[in-house]
């Protein structure tokens, strides 16, 4: 079953080429109300990568989420070849549904080169084997949720997550805005670095903005909550494999004005800093729950 989920996700990220700079992607209904933001990020990166000399590797992606995506309609990706320099290439990507943009993004690529090296140390956390797998929510609790959320909670996805500090999303308690989560693809895949980067872009949207809810004792299951990603930035630093354990270390320095900011660092299990992320998201609580 895991292998089938992984194959489905890889197919989702490969896209159909309609023209030199025009691509079409489908959506996977994972039980969320709208298209999962990580899917659009991964597909946008995949589209941009197909317009660049393979020797040039993506090192940064910056995207704004403009509208919620319709999971029942295809997404068109229009890539603008902004610049091809001696070392760097830049691409602008617009994701379009029903004639309107749902995401604007920019991706920068670089020919690999040697340079100065330093990195922050990986946090001291238990190894993934020493962290309990996520336990499914009890069926009686799932039955109380809206139908879409029931599907979300019940789906066995292509990634496995192990939370160093688990929490009950139905009954969250206030705690500092820091969390550490081990994750990996649930099946082995080939060595193509472009595929691993697209899959990491997909996975980088999980749990990120949720970090900004931790000090407030709320979650995406809180009645009256409205949460949505506004923008997302991702930097690739060093080689990695998404089918091996990676540590996603999060913190949220601020929340204000109905928005929360979260940051993430992604390490290989031997402490190599592979990627960094930042995201700002909408966090509103409506009605009597405010």
Query: What is the CATH superfamily label?
Result: Acyl-CoA thioesterase, double hotdog domain
The percent of residues in helical segments reads 10-25%
Order of helices and strands: HEEHEEEEHHEEHEEEE
The CATH topology label is Porin
Estimated structural class: alpha+beta
Number of domains: 1
Helix count equals: 5
Radius of gyration: 19 Å
Distance between the termini: 41 Å
Number of strands: 12
Q: What shape does the CA trace take? A: globular
**DSSP strand (E) fraction?**
35-45%
Query: What is the typical, i.e. mean, pLDDT?
Result: 92
CATH class category name: Mainly Beta
Low-confidence spans: none
* Strand neighbour order, sheet with most strands: 1-2-4-5-6-3-9-12-11-10-8-7
Described by strand count, sense and barrel closure, the largest sheet is: 12 strands, antiparallel
CATH architecture descriptor: Beta Barrel
Architecture overview:
It is a single chain. By secondary structure, the chain is of the alpha+beta class. It has one domain (2-113, 132-289): Acyl-CoA thioesterase, double hotdog domain (Porin, Beta Barrel). The chain contains 5 helices and 12 strands. The chain has helices spanning 2-14, 37-49, 139-142, 147-154, 193-203; strands at 16-19, 22-25, 57-65, 75-84, 88-97, 100-110, 159-163, 178-185, 225-236, 246-256, 259-268, 273-285. A hairpin with a 4-residue loop joins strand 11 (259-268) and strand 12. The protein is globular. It starts with a helix and ends in a 5-residue tail after the last strand.
Secondary structure topology:
Blueprint: H1 2-14, E1 16-19, E2 22-25, H2 37-49, E3 57-65, E4 75-84, E5 88-97, E6 100-110, H3 139-142, H4 147-154, E7 159-163, E8 178-185, H5 193-203, E9 225-236, E10 246-256, E11 259-268, E12 273-285
Antiparallel strand pairs: 1-2, 2-4, 3-6, 3-9, 4-5, 5-6, 7-8, 8-10, 9-12, 10-11, 11-12
Helix pairs in contact: 2-5
């Amino acid at each position: 079953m895991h292998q089938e989920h992984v194959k489905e996700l890889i197919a989702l990220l490969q896209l159909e080429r309609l023209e030199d700079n025009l691509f079409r992607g489908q959506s996977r209904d994972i039980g969320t109300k709208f298209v999962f933001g990580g899917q659009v990020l991964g597909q946008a990166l995949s589209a941009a990568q197909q317009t660049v000399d393979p020797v040039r590797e993506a090192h940064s992606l910056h995207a704004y989420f403009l509208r919620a995506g319709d999971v029942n309609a295809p997404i068109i990706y229009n890539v603008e070849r902004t610049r091809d320099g001696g070392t760097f290439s830049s691409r602008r990507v617009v994701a379009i549904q029903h004639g309107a943009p749902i995401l604007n993004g920019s991706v920068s690529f670089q020919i690999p080169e040697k340079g100065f090296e330093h990195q922050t140390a990986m946090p001291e956390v238990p190894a993934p084997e020493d962290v309990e797998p996520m336990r499914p929510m009890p069926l009686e609790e799932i039955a109380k949720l809206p139908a879409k959320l029931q599907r979300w909670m019940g789906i066995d996805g292509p990634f496995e997550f192990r939370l160093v500090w688990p929490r009950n999303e139905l009954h969250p308690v206030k705690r500092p805005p820091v969390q550490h989560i081990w994750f990996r693809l649930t099946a082995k895949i080939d060595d193509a670095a472009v595929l691993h980067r697209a899959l990491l872009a997909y996975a980088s949207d999980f749990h990120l903005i949720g970090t900004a809810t931790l000090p407030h004792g709320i979650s995406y299951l809180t009645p009256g909550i409205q949460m949505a990603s506004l923008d997302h930035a991702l930097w690739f630093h060093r080689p990695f494999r998404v089918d091996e354990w990676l540590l996603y270390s999060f913190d949220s320095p601020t929340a204000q004005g109905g928005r929360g900011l979260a940051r993430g660092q992604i390490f290989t299990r031997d402490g190599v800093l592979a990627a960094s992320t930042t995201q700002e998201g909408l966090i509103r609580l409506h009605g009597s729950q405010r």
